[in-house]
């Protein structure tokens, strides 16, 4: 199996977390063409305002969407793990308002928009699966907005750890209490809207209160239930249950 085929299988597995697809529809996903690429750590994959003709499927590593300020500062708005197509929405809006960067050395597969369009137009149930995937990403974004606007730093970091633990668990990449999150404290700060120094202090609090260990790239949690309580974490926003409307 080629690297592109492996990546498409991961993407299909992600779609199946939210939607039911027939064997024929699954084959369409697995047969999508793609161009593999290696991206170095801290290299932008899509820049602000760029018009793209492909979507970016993460094969390995950790990738982030971000918004960039005039002074060069960045606010991370989403994290993407292997198997996620981090800008599937670009099929219908190819001018990037959410830009993409590699937080680690990463492998990606660029899937041309025209083939995603064709798959959706010819297969309405697959179009709904793509739509549902986008809605799940929107729900995560909405939760991030609420966390940034209303929660303290401890709850924000705890929530991010809980979220990424469950997403990695659902993808078969670890468990909620033991998974890879290869982010620096500076990158964590960009995701939760505080300074790196504040992130360091917060990690120390969570180490004491929930048994959190953060030894890049591995995260361990001794008391996940208490971590979730500190975060006020409700997993429903991740929409990980299968068997939707179709």
Structure, explained:
44% of the residues lie in helices and 20% in strands. The strands form 3 sheets. Strands 2-6-4-5 form a 4-stranded antiparallel sheet. A 3-stranded antiparallel sheet has the order 1-7-3. The protein is of the alpha+beta class and 246 residues long. The protein has helices spanning 3-16, 23-30, 113-122, 124-150, 153-170, 185-192, 196-210, 224-231, and strands at 35-39, 44-46, 54-60, 63-68, 74-80, 99-102, 106-112, 178-180, 212-215, 218-221. The protein starts with a helix and ends in a 15-residue tail after the last helix. The chain is globular, with a radius of gyration of 18 Å.
Name given to the CATH homologous superfamily of the largest domain? Jelly Rolls
**Cα end-to-end separation:** 30 Å
Shape: globular
| Rg for CA atoms | 18 Å
Give the low-pLDDT segments.
242-246
Report the CATH C-level class of the largest domain: Mainly Beta
Q: Strand share of the residues? A: 15-25%
Which features characterize this protein?
20% strand, Jelly Rolls, 8 helices, alpha+beta, 4-stranded antiparallel sheet, 2 domains, 246 residues, 10 strands, 3-stranded antiparallel sheet, globular
How would you summarize this macromolecular structure in one to three sentences?
By secondary structure, the protein is an alpha+beta fold.
Chart the SSEs and their pairings.
Elements: H1 3-16, H2 23-30, E1 35-39, E2 44-46, E3 54-60, E4 63-68, E5 74-80, E6 99-102, E7 106-112, H3 113-122, H4 124-150, H5 153-170, E8 178-180, H6 185-192, H7 196-210, E9 212-215, E10 218-221, H8 224-231
Antiparallel strand pairs: 1-7, 2-6, 3-7, 4-5, 4-6, 8-10, 9-10
Helix pairs in contact: 3-4, 5-7, 5-8, 6-7
């Amino acid at each position: 199996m080629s690297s592109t085929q492996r990546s498409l299988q991961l993407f299909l597995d992600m779609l199946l977390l939210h939607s039911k697809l027939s064997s024929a529809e699954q084959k369409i996903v697995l047969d999508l063409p793609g161009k593999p690429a290696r991206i170095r750590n801290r290299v932008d994959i899509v820049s602000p305002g760029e018009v793209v003709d492909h979507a970016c499927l993460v094969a390995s590593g950790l990738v982030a969407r971000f918004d960039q300020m005039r002074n060069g500062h960045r606010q991370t708005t989403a994290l993407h793990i292997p198997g996620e197509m981090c800008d599937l929405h670009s099929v219908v809006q190819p001018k990037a308002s959410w830009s993409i960067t590699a937080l680690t050395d990463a492998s990606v597969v660029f899937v041309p928009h025209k083939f995603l369009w064709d798959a959706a137009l010819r297969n309405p149930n697959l179009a709904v699966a793509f739509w549902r995937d986008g809605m799940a990403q929107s729900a995560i974004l909405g939760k991030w907005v609420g966390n940034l606007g209303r929660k303290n730093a401890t709850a924000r970091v705890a929530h991010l750890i809980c979220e990424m633990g469950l997403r990695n668990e659902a993808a078969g990449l670890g468990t909620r209490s033991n998974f890879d999150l290869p982010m620096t404290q500076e990158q964590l700060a960009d995701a939760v809207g505080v300074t790196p120094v504040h992130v360091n202090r917060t990690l120390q609090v969570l180490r004491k209160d929930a048994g959190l260990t953060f030894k890049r790239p591995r995260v361990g949690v001794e008391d996940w239930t208490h971590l979730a309580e500190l975060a006020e974490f409700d997993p429903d926003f991740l929409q990980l249950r299968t068997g939707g409307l179709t």
